[in-house]
Amino acid sequence: MSKKTIAKMRADRWIIEKGQPKKRLPDVKVPWLNVILTENHEMLGGKGQMVSVEPRLARNTLIRLGMAVYATEENKEKFLRKDTSDDHPEAALDSEFLSFLQGLHLKIQRKEGSEFFEVNEHHIALEFESQFELFVPVHCVKLDKPITSFGDFQVNVAVRDNVLVPMKVSVEQWEPDLPDWVKDALKSEGHDIDKEQMEARES
Q1: Is-contact 203 196, C-beta < 8 A?
Q2: Cα angle 45, 46, 48; round to 5
Q3: CA distance 27 to 22
């Protein structure tokens, strides 16, 4: 490369000198892809349904494994179910998929008195992905106001326009998730773990 090119790259900070901060690439929001399922999917929906998914999920899994096709006009004529029109959104939902969603019980732990107690749409979406490997867009979680107390709550999740699925969310007292060998070691030293956890919960 010429000296002029190198100077230009340094000016644009594509060449990082020692001690200089690295250039941060701009955040780019990648649009989701519409695909048509060619077989029933436990989390996405039924065969013949058009769904929006992350591009990497579409390319690396669904399309590659033959579980879906791109939603081109040709594929819509060939694979899209005729009863999945926007006029009848509930018709596109597979009964097994709805039963699966309604059967989920999300449990979130919080420390009493913590300044980070609040549970909002972002927390619920993250916990669905963490506990069930179920991606739920934040805007699909319908919560009137953040949850700020312990207990059981019903949270609606939008799976399509005008279709809400009630899902159970419980906010529970935080307890340390200790491996069995740690519990055994503590008990061998005379610690009553259940009693100590109860006292910590009441304090």
Answers
A1: no
A2: 120
A3: 15
- Residue among 171, 166, 137 at smallest CA distance from 154: 166
Radius of gyration, CA atoms only, the chain: 24
| Structural domains of the chain, with CATH | 1-83 (no CATH), 103-203 (3.10.430.100)
Q: Which amino acid is at 70?
A: Y
pLDDT, tens digit, 9 for 90 and up, residues 104-120: 899 999 988 888 889 99
Which backbone phi and psi does 93 adopt, to 5 degrees? -90, 125
Would you state the structure tokens that stand for residue 196, as one six-digit string?
């100590």
Asked whether 163 and 181 are in contact (CB, 8 A), the reply is no
Show the tokens assigned to 96: 């097994």
Q: What's the per-residue H, E or C state across 91-106?
A: HHCCHHHHHHHHCCEE
What is the spatial distance between Cα 55 and Cα 62, in angstroms, rounded to a whole number?
10
Tens of pLDDT, residue by residue over 132-188, are 888 888 888 999 899 999 999 999 988 876 678 889 999 998 877 767 777 677 677
**Could you say which DSSP state residue 33 is in?**
E
| pLDDT tens profile 9-59 | 666 555 555 555 555 545 555 678 889 999 988 778 888 888 888 888 888
Record the tokens describing residue 135, joined without a space. 């991606």
Cα-based distances in Å from 154 to 41, 109, 130, 159, 162? 25, 16, 19, 15, 17
